[in-house]
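ok so dumb question maybe but i'm new to this and my supervisor (M.) told me to 'just get the structure for DUF2029 domain-containing protein' and walked off. so i did the thing. is this what she meant?? sequence i used:
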Amino acid sequence: MPDDARRLVTPSRGDGVAAAATEVIGGPVGRFARAGARSWLYVGGVLSSLASVLIALGVLQKNHCERMGWGAPAAFWRGCYSDLPVGVGGQSAATPWSTGGPGHTQPVITAFVTWGLQHLVPGGGTVLHQQQIYYAICAVVITALVAATTIATASMLRDSPWQAAHVALSPVLITASLLSLDILGVALATIGMALWMRRMPLAAGALLGAAVMARTYPLIIIAAIVLLATRERRTSEAVRLLAAAAATAVFFLLAAVAVGGDPLAPYRAWGSATASYGSPWLVSAILHVTIPPTALTVVALLGWLAALLAGMLRVSMRAPVRLGPLALMMLVIVLVTGRSFPLQASLWVLPLIAICALRWREHLVWAMVEVVYFVMVWMYAGVSSNPGKALAPAGYAVFCVIRLVAYAGLAAAAWESAEDVDDRMRPVVRRPAARDGADFRASSTPA
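this is what came out, is it supposed to look like this??
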């Protein structure tokens, strides 16, 4: 095979921001460079190392709380609050669903992992010291999970593994990665997508089922995969994926019940909760239009239904469809109609941004909005302790709306990227199309 055919697509060949960034290391990849000489595994390793630097910056950003504690309101004013140390201190719970255990607020797998990590903290010492140790342990685990997410993303981008930099080098890693263990669900979901693209439906279903038991949002990814599989006449594979996902979910639910837990507790709590940070319904409450919890549940479920219908409409069109833009569109619909829109949602979309091959310009505009919102949400959270110092509710509402628009723009940019990515990034001599499902660009033919 000639050298030109072996070249992998690199962002610096077609993305202006990426090309400018490479000036510090000698400039963009040249026309005759052997960009494909290194495998996606090598690229994933390099990017994972760089991701650890951003997580270290996140640790630095939260230095005040790491030294003084995560108590309110100081943690709000310093923008360093994290859910991770909450519940740590004293004797660890006997099970994740014991009094004070994480099972009451976290999905099953996240509850088990959180509970297990808490048992790694040695007894004795002050509560703050135990929280500091637990936070350090979680930082190491999160770094490993970000690395796994980055490598799995690179494996889906066999022709352009450097696009996984959208996961490894995103500024939102600094602000959001250490808030909770959400990256656990992201890693499981991303590996599941990678296995599906390698035509391993049972393994993909098992990982995606586990991802749902860690965070609920991967249900959207499963729905997008099934819709595409139906269009591409891969129905039998979709059935196997769904069966494996369901079996995995049932296994962990039964495991929770076996230790005396109530795995449905977090979902019942969600059903009775009021509108929370980031939600458009909190904005309406700020404007004195309060929606009761039951109505919020109905609206959120309608949002999931709307996402599914939008996905069905999109795959029914004759234009080619790819998993990344489809899943991102559906996820954004769910987010903007939900009763909460957490800061950690920025982590959920990173692998989808990468496999959409989004331009760094669009990524950085969205990330800038996320970082600004990160600051503003903590300024608003402190309103009960010091209204004069906190961000006024009306000001916070404005930033919420800007953030909602940024996510809608992200989904729109993904569709635009899907249409022109090949034209702006591929070499003149193109690699033969992959037929084993490993290449995320392999789109379905018109029905």
